Amino acid sequence: MGLSSNADTIRILVATDSHVGYGERDSIRKDDSWKSFDEVMQLAKSQDVDMVLLGGDLFHENKPSKKSMYQVMRSLRQNCLGDKPCELEFLSDASEVFDGAFNSVNYEDPDINVAIPVFSIHGNHDDPTGDGNLCALDLLQVSGLCNYFGRIPEVDKIEIKPILLQKGLTKLALFGMSNVRDERLFRTFRDGNVKFFRPGVQQKDWFNLMVVHQNHHARSETSYLPENFLPDFLDLVIWGHEHECLIDPRLNHETNFHVMQPGSSVATSLVAGEAVAKNVAILNITGREFKLEKHRIKSARPFVIKEIALQTDPRFKKLLKLKDNRSLLTNELEKIVLELIQQAKNEWLYIQDEEVEEKDIPLPLIRLKVDYTAPDGCKFDCENPRRFSNRFVNKVANITDVVHFHKKTKINHAPNVDKKMPDESVLAAMSGDSVKVGKLVHEFLTAQSLKIIPQAQFGDAVTQYVEKGDSHAMEAFVNESLSHQVKEMLALDEDSIEHLDEYMERFRKKREEMFATGLLKKANRERKLHPRPVNWDSDEQGEWADQPGAVIVEEDDETNASSALSSKRGKTSLFISDDENLSTISSLQKKKSAPKKPAKNLPSSQGRKKIVKPTNDKNTTQNLAPIFTQRSQRGAATRASQLNNRVSMGLIEDEISDDNDAFGEAIRRGR
Predict the structure, then answer these.
(1) Residue 295 annotated among the catalytic residues of the structure
(2) Residue 326: which H helix or E strand, with range?
(3) Is the pTM of this model over 0.85?
(4) Could you tell me which residue ranges the Mre11 DNA-binding domain spans (predicted)?
(5) pLDDT band at residue 410, thresholds of 50, 70 and 90?
(6) Catalytic position from the list 19, 60, 122, 125
(7) Is the pLDDT of residue 636 over 60?
């Protein structure tokens, strides 16, 4: 791609995932992250770039240590401030692309001499939290060292407005989208609630560059950002978050834009993707064309990873014949690790510009993955991995996890026959793709019956879940069944408690027959819903109608069904015999009931349904149906006061509100 004069070329140094502060409590690796970041900033100054673009995770933690903040601010001040004029013309409305006390680009501030402006989005490690929803990048922005953009104030309605820059004849539209939880972002894109703004004039003259910080590969169906979700008017997408360096631009033929994944500048895990050479890039943009210059990060600690299988490696196959092979096995593995250490040193020395003394070579990261699966009747006697790793103190940087032993999982081709499983003939008949779920459930329940919940209703709920896509059918069925059963059991007298198992079985059979005759509503009935809470966040917690707690469970469903059964069959009554083989409905077998005591005078309010009216009293707790969710983060404290007091719900770590006062208020209300 031909480039014209430098007067029309925008030079951008691109880096992502610096993770400053990673391993700072490690006596060996404590300075790795900030040294790599400082090298990148020095490169920006020496290469005379126009700007620096960071793709998120500048810091490893959203509350970085004083040391981490100091090293970043020092490096930015030394390398990015100066008398050199910035040749970029800022054409955007700063109030629309920046947020904070100073809604302006830093190099236009008359009180600060910025030679190389730094633009950055936040990642999943340095995201905003706490009171004020601030992050470390806000501190850098308010100090004039960084331009923090790409904020996402509303995750269910995302608007992305570009930063418009111009140098000579080259116009750059810089789009930024900071990290959003992948599942939520997937849903927002899928629902069409992401809006991109473009320059209003001469749209074909703009080079459209976007930086994101999301999963690039599908961890699950919705836990990533598909490339084809992004608009096809983009020219280049810089992808942060993924640590493997795939910095050469790759063309997406569906959307016709290029994708570049710079990777991290420091290894944060001992995996193969981190062992790839660490690079940053200088992007040269002229008009609608671009060219890339790769630069190796030379201060990155050398890292070599290797995998071996003892059963197939010639050096270890002969050890299978020995009964006690631990010492010989350990010695051979030690030789391999020493070879990897020497390899790492040679690779690091090769990329250095100057000669380095032996004592100045950083200790390498070494990971040896060993598959010690052995044939039947044989064994590889491996040493404790931590003890083995400690052999290399003062030789490697990771002295506790040099080696990783693992075995292949054996597949049992002749499983034991389970008497509680359906016959093989039944399973064979169901092996086709068109198998009916109801038939499959029926066969399994016939072989292994349920003792507490009704089988027919259970099968119906499974069918609703699989065939109708009702993800809460099972949960709603269990909650409803158990609530009716608990209510029935609590009504028993003290003498009947001794025969609780019999009453539970009778109740289950009663529900089975009522369901079979159609007197119990099917799972796909039209549901009545509780009013949606005012503070309900559909994006975080899902649609209110899909929540099992939203469904109004009629307390008198069972009573109405029982009375309907009696009226349908005249004067007969339901009688369930103690004999498991006998279940009849007959007026001849009707048991004599004990004489009823005179009814007590009830208060005027008893027997009537109480209408709960909304109240403005802050100390009043309204009891709503329980809400089961694991995705809420900030609404946990408020929703706690709305839970039914008969249900207890635990909070995972991510659900604990950052607002301690709000959480305490919820506890006081619960009392």
Answers:
(1) no
(2) helix 326-350
(3) no
(4) 290-465
(5) low
(6) 125
(7) no
